[in-house]
Design brief:
Layout (H helix, E strand, L loop, with lengths): L4 E2 L6 E4 L2 E4 L21 E2 L2 E8 L2 E7 L2 E3 L11 E2 L3 E5 L12 E2 L5 E7 L5 E7 L2 E2 L8 E5 L4 E2 L11 E6 L4 E5 L3 E2 L2 E2 L3 E4 L21 E6 L6 E5 L3 E2 L2 E2 L3 E4 L6 E4 L9 E8 L2 E7 L9 E5 L5 E4 L6 E7 L2 E8 L14 E7 L2 E4 L16 E7 L5 E6 L3 E2 L2 E2 L3 E5 L11 E5 L6 E6 L8 E8 L7 E6 L7 E6 L7 E9 L4 E3 L3 E4 L6 H8 L2 E5 L8 E2 L9 E4 L4 E4 L11 E5 L4 E4 L9 E8 L6 E7 L9 E7 L4 E7 L3 E9 L6 E8 L2 E6 L2 E6 L10 E4 L26 E10 L5 H12 L1
Length: 750
């Protein structure tokens, strides 16, 4: 294991998104995170990198690969250089250093663990191999003199099985894995040998803890008084201690066992330490196991905190009071962070608090087991660099295999462009709304709105956004001449980089939209009119700012005429396959409610018009409060209060004409209205209690995902996605009355 010791920084406290963090000693980003999320040009490999270590400005990497190549070069490029399972690079530039002994010995030779001696002179290499360069007889562990780049001839312990972890002190080299012996002496999956620079280097030491299953991680308490061990084991020295234990550095006797601190069948893949505690990277094989990180205090060996993100953690490292981790986290809902969906591979947290910080550089899953990052190390220098190695083949959407690095601030990733919607729904007013930008290393951004060719903003506001919650911000420009035309630009800045949208023009309304005014006046908590000319952002005309985002497909914009007579508002055409509009904000399950929309279709495969589901992008596991169309064109309105309860329209409405549908639930029960008339009703007054998102034009209906309990909804259609036109979609926190529903229909028909 490479050096992982870092001091907890104390001093001035800064506030980041409501979280108190220790002020870093080096220059930090605006977010308080030390490293930019922008990947730097770095040489790359043609295979998997399992381990990394750093000393003296060099970064040592090992794994399963045969060559390295420059950034941007394709695998096999003539600029490639042969490197067999091991390479050395400059920590500050990312360029290779000539030191390149091949790690060999069999067809599946690989390097799985690296660690530098405390004096920085020796690199210890562990894995599955028998030779380092021309030096043979190395059985799964070797020592490399860093200055000369030559194997240390006297260091030749003979281990019976591959090494998965290494940690060194001035007096011992600790190794872990599956070894049952060193030479002819029995050991229980961990052992210690004498380090280079002492008498009889490589000779077996008395340290003899016994583990019943594989050891995967080792770390020393600063000062060397304790060895923390992690892995798959359940028992250490005859005592139960699930996947984690603390043992004596000389004897291996138990100093502290943890019972079930690491729950279920989860295992510890990595351990980082600082002066106050240690931090575990946990992997839970299979669904629902513990995958997050745990912080433990040295003073009491008690848990300081744990997080509950799903998606196995492979690596952790501490730098300037922050914990950086490599994982494939895909669901941090329980942490009040991103919902189940895409994998996010790099995260940052304070060592004192598990709340995720605004730092989200991204790799892909890559090759092998397709997990992404496998190890993280900090290369110290005039400016520190965070190196990430693993299975990935891209970084921040750019091809880059096996290796990447990130520099300390102030360079930043920069914000994405805001997505604006410029409309005029009231006389003399223009409404400028935009979807917040995403910045991979800053959450709080500043937005400015410019009118026409002006260089002084007419509106300035700051907003906090995360990639899973890019909510709408709105500015209403008043006092404009009815019938005049104006253009607007929106800029966003993280304090270093600024991005400005192209100008968009709008004609100022001479009179208010009667339909929109009535819907808003009747208490709509969201109204989506679909008047955007392009992009994935659909603004909410209400004051709640509950915008929708299009994912999974394309749509046709500004289809005219829309559903409302004598109104300039246009409609949206959906393809009926994959495309979904999802809410950006996770909401508590509504109580009394109404859903309302206009639609026009000739589909014979049905699809969801609107509903509420627990997933933002993925098909929902829990879903209800929805209106969908059956294959035969009839409409279904349903809720789930433990089992599906639904109302079915007697008639079909896939006749290619505009229709108005409203579903309501309140103290009087449920009602389904079509074209201003109640067509079905029921007595059910309760619905599901799971928080979630409003979703339009697509979500699970027929339980096509295995997690939704096998529930069957009435007349479930062939398609979960609606194909046709939608207009004037609204939701309410109450049950609309029959007279209000009729008034909306009558007003729209003109």
């Amino acid at each position: 294991m490479r050096r992982r010791i870092a001091a907890l920084v104390t001093g001035t406290v800064v506030s980041v998104a409501g979280l108190a963090l220790p002020a870093p000693a080096s220059a930090a980003l605006q977010s308080g995170v030390d490293f930019s999320a922008a990947g730097l040009p770095t040489w790359q490999t043609d295979g998997i990198v399992w381990a990394a270590a750093s000393a003296g400005g060099k970064v040592f990497v090992g794994g399963d690969f045969g060559a390295i190549r420059p950034p941007g070069a394709a695998a096999g490029a003539t600029s490639s250089r042969k490197r067999t399972n091991f390479a050395v690079l400059d920590g500050a530039t990312g360029n290779p250093i000539s030191c390149a002994p091949a790690i060999t010995g069999s067809d599946n030779a690989s390097v799985r663990a690296l660690d530098v001696s405390p004096d920085g002179k020796t690199l210890y290499i562990g894995g599955s191999f028998t030779a380092v360069g021309s030096a043979t007889g190395r059985k799964h562990v070797a020592a490399l003199d860093i200055a000369t780049c030559t194997p240390v001839s006297a260091f030749k312990p003979q281990l019976s099985a591959p090494v998965r972890a290494i940690e060194t002190s001035a007096s011992a080299v600790y190794v872990g894995g599956l070894m049952g012996s060193v030479g002819s002496v029995a050991r229980g999956r961990a052992a210690a040998v004498r380090p280079v620079g002492t008498s009889s280097p490589g000779a077996l030491l008395p340290w003899d803890p016994r583990f019943d299953k594989e050891v995967r991680a080792l770390a020393l308490r600063p000062g060397g008084s304790e060895v923390v061990v992690g892995g798959d084991f359940d028992v250490v020295n005859g005592r139960a201690s699930r996947a984690l234990a603390v043992v004596h550095p000389t004897t291996g006797d138990n100093l502290f066992t943890f019972g079930s601190l690491v729950p279920g069948i989860s295992r510890v893949k990595d351990i980082a330490v600082d002066s106050t505690g240690f931090y575990t990277a946990n992997e839970g094989p299979g669904s629902g196991q513990f995958d997050g990180r745990i912080a433990v205090d040295w003073s009491t060996h008690a848990q300081r905190w744990r997080d509950s993100c799903q998606g196995a953690t492979q690596a952790v490292v501490v730098h300037e009071g922050l914990l950086y981790s490599g994982s494939h986290a895909h669901d941090c809902t329980a942490m009040k962070s991103f919902p189940d969906g895409l994998r996010y591979h790099l995260l940052a947290q304070s060592v004192t608090n598990p709340t995720l910080l605004p730092w989200f550089p991204q790799t892909n899953d890559g090759i092998g087991e397709a997990i992404g990052p496998r190890d993280i190390v900090v290369a110290k220098g005039a400016k520190d660099h965070l190196w990430v190695v693993g299975e990935f083949t891209s970084v921040n959407g750019v091809k880059q295999q096996g290796l990447t690095r990130f520099s300390e601030g102030p360079a930043q990733a920069g914000p994405s462009s805001p997505t604006p919607s410029i409309t005029s729904v009231r006389a003399g007013e223009v409404r400028v709304a935009w979807r917040q930008s995403f910045d991979a290393d800053d959450a709080t951004l500043t937005y400015r709105v410019y009118r026409d060719a002006g260089t002084t903003p007419v509106h300035t506001v700051s907003g906090t956004s995360w990639f899973w919650q890019r909510q709408q911000q709105t500015f209403v420009d008043t006092g404009l001449a009815p019938g005049s035309t104006h253009s607007y630009r929106v800029s966003v800045s993280d304090g270093v980089k600024t991005v400005t949208t192209a100008a968009r023009s709008v004609k100022v309304a001479s009179r208010a939209s009667a339909y929109a005014s009535r819907v808003l006046g009747d208490g709509a908590t969201a109204l989506w009119r679909y008047d955007e000319p392009a992009d994935v952002f659909f603004s909410d005309t209400s004051s709640a700012g509950l915008n929708l985002t299009l994912t999974g497909g394309t749509a046709t914009y500004r289809v005219a005429p829309g559903a409302v007579a004598n109104d300039t508002s246009t409609a949206l055409q959906l393809p009926g396959t994959k495309a979904t509009l999802h809410g950006e904000k996770r909401l508590p399950a509504p109580g009394a409610f109404s859903v309302e929309t206009w639609f026009k279709t000739t589909t014979t495969s049905g699809g969801k018009l609107i509903g509420f589901g627990d997933k933002q992008v993925l098909p929902s596991r829990y879903f209800d409060r929805h209106v969908y169309m059956a294959n035969d064109g009839r409409l279904v309105f349903g809720v789930d209060n433990g089992s599906p309860v639904s109302l079915l329209s007697p008639a079909a409405y896939n006749d290619g004409r505009w229709h108005h549908v409203v579903g309501t639930q309140g103290s009087a029960g449920m009602a389904l209205y079509v074209d201003g008339r109640k067509v079905a009703g029921g007595a059910t007054t309760t619905a599901g209690k799971v928080a979630g998102y409003w979703r339009v034009a697509g979500d699970n209906i027929g339980c096509r995902v295995t997690l939704c309990g096998g529930k069957v909804w009435r007349s479930a259609p062939t398609s979960d996605h609606f194909g046709g036109q939608l207009d004037e979609t609204a939701v309410y926190g109450k049950a609309l009355s029959a007279s209000t529903v009729l008034a909306h229909y009558t007003l729209a028909k003109g």
